[in-house]
Amino acid sequence: MDIQLLLILLALGAAVGFFAGLFGVGGGGIMVPVLTTLFVSLGFPADQVVHLALGTSMAAIVVTSFSSMRAHHAKGAVRWPVVRHITPGILLGTFAATFLASYLSSRHLAIFFACFMAYVAVQMVLNVKPRPQRELPGTLGLASVGAVIGAISALVAIGGGSLSVPYLTWCNVNIRNAIATSAAIGLPIALAGTLGFLLNGWGQDGLPAYTLGYIYWPAVLLISGVSYFITPLGAHLAHSLPIPVLKKAFALLLVLLSLKMLHSVF
Fold first, then answer.
1. Least buried of 6, 22, 156, 160, by fewest C-beta within 10 Å?
2. 130 phi and psi, to 5 degrees?
3. Is the pLDDT of residue 175 over 70?
4. pTM for this one?
5. What is the greatest pairwise CA distance in the chain?
């Protein structure tokens, strides 16, 4: 691995960790387009670059989500009953969707990713917040919601924060509790997604060295190694910084990275 690639992956890990702690997201919105562009430049098989980016991102999110969850838990902000009831649906939806992702082409996955990130960006720029008007549903309702969040998260390799935070706030959960709970929800999403992409990529022809399934481990180790230590900083700042301003900047970054990803794939 040359020094330039090493530095890019280390910087990516720092960015992922910061935004994961700050917004309760897994960081896939940043990782997937950057990794796709990197994998294309490294000459990885064109029909597998997005699959590899998704799987690698999911594996890195395991460590990032754990660090973020621990930081938010230390502040007493995680709603653990919600995490417990939503997790079965999360695991099922995420794992099942990795099988769908394995059958889609890199171009189709890139288009879906870009469209979803555009939706997320619009929400952030306009500061769209669903008006709190209901209470959290029961166990079955939360499990069903978790299945939907998990499925979409697997297709775009995110920790689910862009879906779970708005949903929780709609159910009258305080925004800071919603961010913290979303960070905890990201861990089962990442675990199920990693297992799914590992199994679906197992034995595929033409995969580059140092991969296992659709996971490129050098990137996972470097990104997660840095993000683990940076995530608590973002979580700490989430309780003091002007989040709306930062969200707009983050939204612009997501749009630019998605456009770059589409350019690389097409």
1. 6
2. -60, 135
3. yes
4. 0.84
5. 53
pLDDT at 249 over 90: no
Q: What is the DSSP letter of 215?
A: E
Q: What is the pLDDT of residue 145?
A: 93
Phi, psi for 127 (deg, rounded to 5)? 55, 45
pLDDT at residue 239 above 70?
no
Asked if residue 54 has pLDDT above 80, the reply is: yes
Task: Scan for tokens 């022809």, then name that residue.
Answer: 205
Could you give the count of Cα atoms lying within 13 Å of 136 in the half-sphere of its Cβ? 20
Give me the DSSP letters along 137-150.
--HHHHHHHHHHHH
Q: Residue 244, SS3?
A: helix
Q: What is the DSSP string of 146-163?
A: HHHHHHHHHHHT--SHHH
Angle between helices 49-74 and 106-125 (to 10 degrees): 40
Which run of H or of E encompasses 8? helix 3-23
At 105, phi and psi to the nearest 5?
A: -75, 165
Reported as type and span, the H/E element at residue 216 is: strand 215-216
How far, in Å, CA of 69 to CA of 223, rounded? 17
Q: Which helix (H) or strand (E) holds 85?
A: helix 80-103
Print the domain residue range for 182.
3-265
> b/e string for 177-207 if b means 16 or more Cβ within 10 A?
bbbbbbbbbbbbbbbbbbbbbbebbeebeeb
Q: Please give the angle made by the CA atoms of 137, 62 and 78, to the nearest 5 degrees.
A: 40
Measure CA 143 to chain center. Answer: 19
Asked whether 52 and 216 are in contact (CB, 8 A), the reply is: yes
Please tell me the total count of domains within the chain.
1
